[in-house]
Design a protein that fits this description.
Layout (H helix, E strand, L loop, with lengths): L2 H17 L3 H4 L10 H8 L1 H4 L2 H10 L4 H15 L2 H10 L12 H19 L7 H9 L3 H6 L7 E5 L5 E2 L3 E5 L1 H8 L9 E2 L10
Parallel strand pairs: 1-3
Antiparallel strand pairs: 1-2, 3-4
Helix pairs in contact: 1-7, 1-8, 3-6, 3-7, 3-8
């Protein structure tokens, strides 16, 4: 798969999804704790809109904490930029070479896919990530990565219902591959999306 082309396609598709949202949906909660849809959209385009010196300055304000920096910037930008501007930032930068601080283009694809689902899942939108993109991200799941994202997968075996894919050992946790990807990225999902004895451990209240 051409990873750069996949990233560009993902960003354009997510821009189309954002374009179709109502004002109420822009203010709805996402799967990212404490962020609405608009904060997630602002965060997704931060790497395109901020120069390296500006990021360094924001990181200094946050006393070196990447988490505090990204949270502060997402909230500030969500309050000042319109939905149209946030959507345009994603679409106009479909081919931008940005990658996260850790990882290459596979991580950039994961960033876009997961945050896109952070928006689509709680809104009940039928966002289906193409299989070739999913397989790249599923293949990249590691214990270290799961721990980084706060996913506690100890004693759990992820088993996809729609793809020939599994990860880990223990009590089976079943669901769509893209939902299990979200679990590996530390997300809790609405009840009914996952199946197995451990499902409540990975479900929202």
């Amino acid at each position: 798969m051409d990873i750069r082309a996949a990233i560009a396609a993902e960003r354009r598709e997510l821009a189309d999804l954002l374009d179709a949202l109502s004002p109420e949906q822009w203010d709805a909660p996402s799967l990212c704790a404490g962020w609405r849809v608009r904060e997630v959209a602002a965060h997704m385009s931060l790497g395109f809109r901020y120069s390296f010196p500006k990021i360094a300055a924001e990181l200094l304000k946050a006393r070196g904490s990447l988490h505090r920096m990204t949270d502060r910037c997402a909230r500030k930008d969500a309050a000042t930029l319109s939905p149209a501007a946030l959507t345009a930032a994603l679409r106009d930068n479909a081919h931008h070479p940005w990658t996260p601080p850790v990882g290459g283009f596979e991580s950039a694809l994961g960033h876009d896919v997961v945050h896109g689902l952070d928006i689509a899942v709680p809104l009940g939108l039928d966002r289906r990530v193409p299989e070739d993109r999913l397989r790249v991200l599923l293949a990249g799941i590691t214990p270290r990565g799961a721990k980084f994202f706060g996913a506690d997968l100890d004693g759990v075996a992820l088993r996809a219902d729609d793809l020939d894919w599994s990860y880990g050992t223990g009590t089976p946790l079943r669901g769509a591959a893209q939902d299990l990807l979200m679990v590996a990225f530390g997300r809790k999902l609405p009840p009914g999306r996952l199946h197995g004895e451990a499902r409540s451990r990975f479900a929202t209240a």
